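Researcher: Please predict.
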Amino acid sequence: MYLTKEVKEEIFAKHGEAKNTGKSEAQIALFTFRINHLTEHLKKNRHDYNTERSLVKLVGKRRSLLDYLKNSEINRYREIIKVLGIRK
């Protein structure tokens, strides 16, 4: 499995707090990791429509979290965009 407990803990420790997994930055970083993995999978398996649908849903969730962060605290938004290399 690509997303083990250790990988999740590493992401949460790097982009948030180890115990606070609900922090917006941590959730955005986790979604970005999953989106990158699914994108690579779809490059190899272009007819996997279920994965494509879940990828679109994940991108929407991440976008709504980014919009929330942008409207509430613009500095945190700019920082997470820069760190993760997300466009826009």
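Model: The mean pLDDT is 92.
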